[in-house]
Structure formats: structure tokens, C-alpha cells
Amino acid sequence: MRRMKKKVLFLCTENSARSQMAEGLLRALYGDRFEVYSAGIKPKTVNPNAVKVMREIGIDISSQKSKSVEEFRGMKFDLVVTVCDDAKENCPFFPGKKIVHKSFTDPAKSNNLDAFRKVRDEIRKWIIEYFGGRIR
Q1: What positions does the domain Phosphotyrosine protein phosphatase I occupy (predicted)?
Q2: Class of domain 6-130
């Protein structure tokens, strides 16, 4: 019997870097177990530096688009992960769903590739620790 994939939404303020990288990483690492989405409270375009540093580790997020959390109203998620404090404070209500908060520094504030790499690696480490074991 085939197991249904768990639906996960990564939520950030702009959906331009952290949530986009998290979406790409979870899909690449555990896409066989999770259906992954990302959105923003006030979405902007995907940051080219996020695309660049993900490409460095063999993950292509260039086709991902920034989306508003409003696009997902009414959709049922098994887990909503806020990856910044602003998203945590302004997260819309998803009834009956588990919400996890794991804040990462916004690399776009410095717009430095090393800052993007550092956050990418932190997100990857957390995803492996959190999602890598049993299915949550």
C-alpha cells in the first residue's frame, strides 16, 4: 500500500530566499516522502543569490516562484514551518495543523553570497535533523 506524502509549507516574509531554499532542499532530500511548498506574507521575487548558492550544491530552484500565503488558504498541510520571526508573528491560521518555528537569519539583508551559503547550510542541516528520521 502506497503511503501518502505529507504536505509541508515553508513560510517566510518575502518568499525570496530562506523559504525558497528550504522548499528546494526538502524536495531534493526527501521529496519521496513530502510534498513541499513555500510562500510569503509579503512575497517578492526569488533572490538570484538563493538560486546561485542552491545550484552550487546541485539543486535547481530557478523555476520556483514567490507566492503569497493567500494562494494556499483552504489547502490542508500536515506541517507549516515558519523560517523567520515575522512569519511566525503573522502566520495565518491553518486549522488542525502542526506549526513549527525555526528562524534563520535573512541573507538578503547583506546580499553577500557567503551569507546565503551559511543560511543554506544551516537550513540543510536542520532539514536533515528534523525530517531525516521518521516521518513527522
Answers
A1: 6-133
A2: alpha beta
